[in-house]
Amino acid sequence: MNFASDNAYGAHPAVVRALAECNDGAMMGYGDDPVTARAEAALRDLLQAPDAVIRFVATGTAANALVCAQLCPAGGRIYCHEDAHIETSECGAPEFFTHGGKLVTLPGEGGKIAPHVLADALRIGAGGGLNGGRNAMVSITNATEWGTVYSIDDVAALAETAHRAGLPLHMDGARFANAVAALEGSAADLTWRAGVDVLCLGGTKNGAMAAEAVVFFDPALAEGFDYRRKQSGHVFSKQRFLSAQMLALAEDGLWLDLARHANGLAARLAEGVLEAGGSLLVPVQSNAVFATIPAAAHGRAQEAGAIYHLWPDKSAEGLDPVPIRLVTSWNTPHADIERFLAALAGQQT
Amino acid sequence: MNFASDNAYGAHPAVVRALAECNDGAMMGYGDDPVTARAEAALRDLLQAPDAVIRFVATGTAANALVCAQLCPAGGRIYCHEDAHIETSECGAPEFFTHGGKLVTLPGEGGKIAPHVLADALRIGAGGGLNGGRNAMVSITNATEWGTVYSIDDVAALAETAHRAGLPLHMDGARFANAVAALEGSAADLTWRAGVDVLCLGGTKNGAMAAEAVVFFDPALAEGFDYRRKQSGHVFSKQRFLSAQMLALAEDGLWLDLARHANGLAARLAEGVLEAGGSLLVPVQSNAVFATIPAAAHGRAQEAGAIYHLWPDKSAEGLDPVPIRLVTSWNTPHADIERFLAALAGQQT
Amino acid sequence: MNFASDNAYGAHPAVVRALAECNDGAMMGYGDDPVTARAEAALRDLLQAPDAVIRFVATGTAANALVCAQLCPAGGRIYCHEDAHIETSECGAPEFFTHGGKLVTLPGEGGKIAPHVLADALRIGAGGGLNGGRNAMVSITNATEWGTVYSIDDVAALAETAHRAGLPLHMDGARFANAVAALEGSAADLTWRAGVDVLCLGGTKNGAMAAEAVVFFDPALAEGFDYRRKQSGHVFSKQRFLSAQMLALAEDGLWLDLARHANGLAARLAEGVLEAGGSLLVPVQSNAVFATIPAAAHGRAQEAGAIYHLWPDKSAEGLDPVPIRLVTSWNTPHADIERFLAALAGQQT
Amino acid sequence: MNFASDNAYGAHPAVVRALAECNDGAMMGYGDDPVTARAEAALRDLLQAPDAVIRFVATGTAANALVCAQLCPAGGRIYCHEDAHIETSECGAPEFFTHGGKLVTLPGEGGKIAPHVLADALRIGAGGGLNGGRNAMVSITNATEWGTVYSIDDVAALAETAHRAGLPLHMDGARFANAVAALEGSAADLTWRAGVDVLCLGGTKNGAMAAEAVVFFDPALAEGFDYRRKQSGHVFSKQRFLSAQMLALAEDGLWLDLARHANGLAARLAEGVLEAGGSLLVPVQSNAVFATIPAAAHGRAQEAGAIYHLWPDKSAEGLDPVPIRLVTSWNTPHADIERFLAALAGQQT
């Protein structure tokens, strides 16, 4: 019963199989191989973006931080939510890769930035002169760090706000599959058609071992990106193995199936939490549940061996009700959900 | 009538004279000269810190950012007030010099951090794991960006909080002279005796052309600092001219006299603002006045040619009352104050 | 017949198997898993270094550059061979990760630095003052970029020279297995017993998909290293998959068997090159052959479909004899060697 | 008798006077002042470059390294002479400001790069793929670190070579005045008319306290430069004092007069060195003399109190003849030259 993170589970069998299948024989290194070509093509199809430039890296932090470096010039300001992964969970990687980019954080319910909040911040930022730096880019996460989802209209409104200020819009899609699975509409609708300029499309949380795609919908934005990857140690010599993972997820809609599984389990968790007397801190829209549960229920769940994080951190220990975060993944067993909910509810199982 | 900033006025005649006086003859470069030796000694005296390592740079941004680089290792978190100069007004220099240090900003009335707010933030930061980074240093500004002043006890409480967490305390003293002038107690009392580990002692706003001192009270903290200065282009070949400026300010208490002048004018401004129907946003303790004034008074001041900033920015234009910032300097004329206050009050002058 | 690089072939079946075998169930992320613990222990055993701190990353560039960042402070000078991978083939990664470390390159036959050349350079570097920067570390590659091997005595002499100057010695061991396979003596003899302080032990060229180990023989040198890894995007959330690769190589001496295979093929290539009228540019000691071959032989090899690099680059095209580089790997087929040599020799096959 | 460096002497009286003269009254900070406007205009006139973007910083290292950052993107290669100041004497500043730019050093007699050497290097660099990085810029120094001077034709040939490869040409003109004084032809002839894209025009060695101009002949190349300056702490709040220095040098041809003085003294030194049995290591073309002198003459000079550097470093102590470097400046006294030469020659004075 591990609900600590969607990286707790391993890789989907199709991913492991894909590694074995592309293993034979010699290929040129550094991406000049047929597996990479197929994987890039598969993602362009998936995104209906025939001109997109696509590159693979192994971690979400690398993907996000490299994109920040690509889009944020010296003295630049990067606008993001105050709970954005790039702000809270990447150990300063965006600042490191950008050599001093300033993350300007915005409040917003459920991990979402409201367009008028962004617009106000951009206006203030534009007036900061040399001392304040210059507006450089906007970054949103979808699905968000709170498990909520920006709708296509939400994204379009933020993109319009960013573009009006002359800035590109980056989407951290570590859980992009979960966002698409949560919505009516295609991956294209949620990204370039809505105005997203660069997407980090996560494979790892979706069922890969370690693979993320960086997607530049406008090829001009990718200029020199490969040098950045190499200079930061993120070009694989045997790149076929990175590419094969993304290819396996992209084929036959596997990526969406896996995300739907995770989302479905989270919805079930949410129900059960409410039934056990808990309440939700934000609406459950993808694969994470932020809730408070009675301390007694928490105690029973712990006793039953459930693993999950108190929220936002261990200082929540001892509160009643207890705020917690539960995350489901592509491989979380149904049975674990039911066992956990039974424990919450104090039922025999 | 320029109240835009305390850098609006030039240099004190003694500073200019000092440059001319040390100009003759050949000296070795890069700080290996007798003027530098005397200036360093003078500041050690001023601070009653015979073991301190002292270095001069030309800008406050350089001083602060170099100290951050010195104290903040890879993945480090730097705690400061949300209105700190290093956060708002250095164009990302701390992030640039630290190669990705994360500025963690804290709220606090009047630009001051409260010890319990710091303690809470440090506790949370200590639990962030690799993703969150590691606590690295605490930075406070005195006098603050709001013109308020941390007392000796205030500083000691923050130093104790920082030290308990194993972190050094940096003081951005761009207006250090104004802080000392505002308090009972010596420069030593306000710094190392209260627990400050590194001080940036500002010369520029105090009456120099462009000179700041970086003071490491613990010489061990200065290890390798000269290489950082050089690598960032902040070592002067004809360093005597940097040193001479600080020496001139340190001699005969000139630095304090100039700060008292500025502080006194600000106090007078505050009185006049109140008399003209304005109100103070924070107590006036050094050389800055943050206030709101009636729009009519603002109009009259503008008409009379007064130069000052709306606060926090131009978006305040059109409000009634109008929030403004007034800064006085070592050389602001008494007459300008009176003329300005007369305009505010609608009096003939 | 691909002799372009030892990264042309995929991963050893045992590596692929290891990924599948550790795939089941939930584990904590970021290295807090049992597979990582076992892999670290296995490498400590392999190196007879029970106190070593060991960390895994996915690329050799990351491993080397992160170690440089760890060992080279601001304004530091990094001494290496002029053909070192960190100088020629990492796109500035060491400079990027160190934020401006200066690579000081030394000449030396066969890719090897002579101790007196190092000693002279360190002496000059020590006298460069602020402008020149400070000596920081020494980096050698074993096996070298020219396929030669530093003996245990060679390493000890360089280590002594570095240590006498107060500097740590780093070994880029992208082909460390090939070096050990080429020598009498253990991995311990060639590293910490000879004075190596930090080793990058390559897995990728040795038969992994993408895995390298960074080994700090002195745990004190590893302080804060994990933050660097994270800040540069080199911490894997599902780290078990990185660890499992290294574990598979370490078990049952597979790493050495694979290196012996590659070395043996290179020795056979060298013989055949000489038989075909070519000559060796440097002695063949590990898994690379640098040679000149008659233009006619080159033509026949090309026609037969052999893939290899002209050396140092394409400008060698048209020369007679032609300088070339041939690299063998853990999986290069014996039959390819013979077919290639037959083509060189102009024999029917 | 200080011939250690041209930064051994202070500032020209006109420079000191200029500081005093612009000291009165309040001005806006950060360059938005009339003195800066006049200084920029004066330099545009001096260079006959009405569209040039001109910015002032206080040190040559800052000027050069900021320009490198401006012209060298991620993974870039910067071509320069192996004795270039940016390579040998800036403590890694170019690598720091560029975040990992790779300095590719070229040999060349007398500190000068030959066009065919540059062309060959650029061709090789262009073929290095991701691993090698990408060609980014060419940097030359004029007058060179060996006191020689690139003629207008020399510069034009290098510019053509750089431009053919699509690269901009930077000129480190720390001693630009000495180069112009050494040649027939104007500052314009030696820079933009010959193809220089960015010039660092040195004031400090020429007679300023600490002032350098960065000149972008193509304004497009200056995009965002001010943010870089600010982010690295090189924007002065009271910028008038930086500008006034350059203005004083530019007015009435003072800069050229001072350079001619220095060059003339060096020519006289060269004569005297030869008369005393020494020989020149390179032709004396500006204000530096690289020579070997008999050990006895060296002994007499030392005894007489002359200060100069052995070359390339102290290891030359004890050689006979002794290699030395002598540098003259805007303010080196004629009498010192004669006294030094008399000592060399063993004459009574």
From TrEMBL, chains A, B, C, D:
Its required cofactor(s), as named, are: pyridoxal 5'-phosphate
Keyword annotations of the record: Lyase, Pyridoxal phosphate
Instruction: Check the record and name the SUPFAM superfamilies matching this protein.
Output: PLP-dependent transferases
The Aromatic amino acid beta-eliminating lyase/threonine aldolase domain extends over 3-293
Which superkingdom, per the lineage? Bacteria
GO-annotated molecular function: lyase activity
Keyword Lyase listed: yes
InterPro entries for the chain: ArAA_b-elim_lyase/Thr_aldolase, PyrdxlP-dep_Trfase, PyrdxlP-dep_Trfase_major, PyrdxlP-dep_Trfase_small
- Family under the similarity heading: Belongs to the threonine aldolase family.
Assembly, in brief, is: Homotetramer.
What name appears for this protein in its UniProt entry?
A: Beta-eliminating lyase-related protein
The organism named in the record is Paracoccus maritimus
